[in-house]
Design goal:
2 domains; Spore Coat Polysaccharide Biosynthesis Protein SpsA, Chain A; alpha/beta; seven-stranded mixed sheet; single chain
């Protein structure tokens, strides 16, 4: 019987930029004696760091033959770097992790066992968004967190990569992966435990502000500057082909249905972005009649409440 070797089945890629203490900590965890992935290929995609991160990565690469350092000549942006990581994957499974992650290796056994079966297109490593369920809408939302999924590399076809690159402006190029799995009716493994800690080690530059961190200053149109998490997430659901499944995700992605989700999560469009009309248009254009009606009513409610809030100030 052939012995399963994790290092032959899994490779790890880490996009990074100017995170010297964090990339040092993450690489130390991955290469530590107790790490079950210490022998796997580990490639760091360095987005032209200037804070000493490059030197730290080079030190690890010199010490560990399986650690590779790819330094981009120019900063291509965080989301493009994530996409490039998946594009470079060659092992049967790929795990793209963040440069500030914390890991719980106690639960790795069930991940490896699932990987050995070669049945699954996605193995979840984190499931806090699932709230104890196996709901597909929750799984879709969980996959917004890049390291939450270990993906079968064969699903990353040229067409999927095009969807990923096209979805960079929506902040979540990697949601093209879970969408492809849903479109193919692929298999997803839900572990009992979690590999990822509850949150990243450093969230100071996470979320909406992470998009162009460190990139050279240039003109950015409003459509780019006014993009935020909720808009990018809802736009990304368009990557799901089945209309009924798409509607199900809209209805179940939040705790209070689609209307409640818009009232809570899209409020930012009026409190921080002045009621930016293109954000409304982008979301509206992808909705069916029922959800478009709910969206219009929710937006009207948000406009009225924001108006009175400003007036009160």
């Amino acid at each position: 019987m052939e012995i399963f070797k994790t290092e032959e089945q899994l490779e790890i890629l880490i996009p990074t930029y100017n995170r010297k203490p964090h990339i040092m900590r993450t690489l130390a965890q991955l290469t530590a004696p107790d790490s079950p992935v210490r022998a796997c290929s580990i490639t760091v995609l360095d987005n032209a760091s200037e804070d000493g991160s490059s030197e730290v990565i080079a030190e690890f690469a010199a010490k560990y033959p399986n650690v590779k350092h790819i330094r981009h000549e120019k900063n291509i942006g965080g989301n493009a770097n994530i996409t490039r990581a998946y594009e470079l994957a060659r092992a049967p499974y790929v795990w793209v992790v963040c440069d500030d992650d914390s890991f719980r290796w106690e639960a790795w056994g069930e991940i490896q066992t699932a990987m050995e079966t070669n049945q699954y297109d996605l193995l979840l490593t984190r499931k806090d968004d699932l709230k104890g369920t196996s709901d597909i809408a929750r799984i879709f939302r969980q996959c917004t967190f890049v390291p939450a999924g270990i993906y079968r590399t064969s699903i990353i076809t040229g067409g999927v990569l095009i969807n990923m690159y096209n979805n960079i402006p929506n902040m979540f190029p990697h949601l093209a992966l879970i969408s492809e799995i849903l479109n193919r009716q692929g298999l997803i493994f839900l572990p009992q435990g979690e590999i990822m800690a509850e949150c990243t080690f450093d969230v100071a530059t996470s979320g909406d502000k992470h998009i162009g961190r460190g990139a050279e200053q240039t003109y950015r149109p409003d459509v780019s500057k006014n993009m935020f998490w909720t808009v990018g997430f809802l736009n990304s659901i368009q990557l799901v082909q089945d209309k009924k499944l798409r509607a199900y995700i809209w209805d179940h992605v939040g705790n209070h249905g689609f209307f409640g989700y818009i009232v809570g999560a899209f409020r930012k469009n009026y409190t921080e972005y002045g009621g930016y009309a293109l954000n409304e248009a982008f979301i509206r254009s992808g909705l069916d009649f029922k959800h478009r009606l709910q969206f219009e009513i929710a937006c009207l409610f948000l406009k009225v409440t924001s108006f009175f809030h400003r007036k009160k100030k």
